[in-house]
Amino acid sequence: MKIRIFALFFIFAMATAFFCGCTAPPGDGTTVSGTGMIVYNDFEGGFYGIVTSDGAEYYPLNLPDEYHENGLPVTFTGTVETGVMTTVQWGTPIRLTSITGTGTPIPTGTGSVSREESLKIADNYVRNMPEYTNYSGKNLMLVESLTLKCPSCYQFGYTFDMVSMKDPDVIDRATVDVTVSEGKVSQVLIGEGLPAGLIVVSELPDNPIPGAVVNVTGRVSGLGMMDCPCFTLTSGGVSVEVWYSVIVTSAGSENPIIDISGISNGDYVIVRGTLVGAEIPDVPVKIQASGIEKV
Length: 295
Known about the structure:
- By secondary structure, the protein is mainly beta.
- It has helices at residues 115-127, 130-133; strands spanning 2-7, 31-41, 47-52, 57-60, 73-80, 92-101, 138-147, 153-163, 171-181, 184-195, 199-200, 213-221, 230-235, 238-243, 268-276, 286-294.
- It has three domains: 31-101, CATH 2.40.50.500; 109-195, Nuclear Transport Factor 2, Chain: A (Roll); 199-294, CATH 2.40.50.140.
- It has a five-stranded antiparallel sheet, with helices on one face. Strands 2-3-4-6-5 form a five-stranded mixed β-barrel. Strands 12-13-14-16-15 form a five-stranded mixed beta barrel.
- Strand 3 and strand 4 form a beta hairpin.
- It is flat.
């Protein structure tokens, strides 16, 4: 797969590991504390989290309403609760024991560029890209939306279909990540030539056929935190559990272990595999991976 990166300038990267230098994630009941900033993430229904000064991400289960302010600097202490079930596949779940605001919300620049305004800027940029206009781009879909740590900074992930100029029956899927900072496009990552059969998690069928083969792309989270050899894959605002180690299928066969040594939380990957568990009522469908590719 061919990847081209266009950067007008680099903003600091979002941290993709739980703690810098740590060899394992904190266990259940571990006390954590630090300074950081409240951030609002608008995927999975929208929620507030804490990003620390060293890049660690925490999802507070009991954040008081008065701290629901994007950009608010805070100091906090809490206990890790990795065993709790949440609908949010982001950060490490913690239960706060104390939290204090340390100032006013970090200003978002003159005029304050909102997420909605930033989204319009990103959308307009993609629709005017040569890759979109020259290849009869269609089926443009917003699959990811992230609030970054810098003021008025957002990242939007898109997919769209590119129609071949020579053969209209040949369609490729392109992915684009657009970062908008203070109302200006600051970074664009473009992936071309992805197979048209590639989908996002939200495009998985509502009533999947057990054993159906799928090719799904999304963002990794929960790796190393879950009580299974698995992680959560999220795209299009929907999540699914992906197993990369041995899992017994309905036919009684076992699948091989997949090497995930190069994969970290926050990475975007393509997962090839089969749907497992669709035949069991009230049990969430999982993907048994046969291959995982970082993009």
